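Ticket opened by: R.M.
Priority: normal
Category: complex prediction / small molecule

The reporter submitted a protein together with N-(iminomethyl)-L-glutamic acid and asked that the result be attached to this ticket for the collaborator who will pick it up next week. Submitted input follows.
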Amino acid sequence: MGNGAGEANVQPGEGLTSGPKRGSEMRDIGLIEDGVVGIRGEDIVFVGTAHEFERADISAHETLDAGGRLLTPGLIDPHTHLVHGGSRQQELAMKLAGKSYLEILEQGGGILSTVKSTRAASEEELEAQALQSLHTMLEQGTTTVEAKSGYGLERETELKQLKVANKLNDLQPVEVVSTFLGPHALPPEYRSHPDEFLDLMIEMLDEIKEEKLAEFCDIFCESGVFSVEQSRRFLAACKNKGFDIKIHADEIEPLGGTELAAELGATSVEHLLAASKEGLQDIAKSGTIAVILPGTSWNLRSPKHADARYLIDEANGAVALATDYNPGSCPTESLQLIMAFGANLLGMTPEEILTAVTRNAAYAIGRGHRIGTIEVGKQADLCLFNTDDVAYIPYHFGINHVDCVFKKGRKVVSGGKPITD
Ligand code: NIG
Ligand code: FE
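Result attached by the on-call engineer:
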């Protein structure tokens, strides 16, 4: 055995290919008291109790005694806008004065302000800014993150963002899964002919595919941004080119993007704050994962949040949680904070929350076969917390509970700090 982990309360998954957890299954985290996890190379080779480990007669040449604390799969953040230039703290005053997110965008701020900073930034500058965020994510337990483009709204800058997202995989331990979100907003120069802008984004798909710059495509389907019809046209073209699809749907107004995600068989549908009950039912019946972003609804000062309880209790849906990390609607890298919001804003239980940031989050980015649970044969992405109780993480909010993180079998965080070598 290459490495070994000592005794811990282990939260494994069950069955390598059994899919996301839906409805009440989300509360079943399969906790093993007094558990042992064995790692060889990049993979998990043993999961069981200390007693089973002794009987298996395996010798570990390196062990870590977790002292009965909680060992979970590495956390997975399935929706971020990681690569961008600049920041937007100047919008805080506008927000406090009562301006809405869509009003700020309408006036050329919001996403369009970050478009300006991202167009102006060099690849090196974007890379340096994203590396800092990844460092923060890793020390908070995130081992895999999805990263969307969408602050270029033109060929050159979109490609620049996608290239940086991919290169980040060679520079640090957090795995970055890339999504092309070309239609994230309508650039002012296309105001009178939005369909030509969509054509331009569709023309980029071949190049993105050939250069392997993105696995997923996404669009912001929202009132005043892209309509359901425009979203259908773009996403159908993406599917045609062999991309898996995601959709920013019903974040602010109930437009029907949720129903569209189910219709098109999207891998995930994201936001859902304003989604209709029928839309949520459609999603739950489909294989699409509902990615909820409570940090965004909190930060936009929304009195409402996505209806996670309806999705879980009534619709039997599969829910994941994500930060939506971006410089406007949700400037935080901390999935642990989002876990606290999952409890307090969405009414999710600690066990549902853990499932939502591990197993279900893995399926939201098409990685369920490889990460998201602690199972023999899966990648050894693990997170050791300074507590023995999963409820302690959302309960004691605003601080970092991570002690150690393993990525692909290698210890990359120790004592809550990334190991830099
Ligand atoms: O998911 N809604 C669209 N996109 C992001 C926000 C991006 C931004 O404000 O810069 C979101 O909330
Ligand atoms: Fe987003």
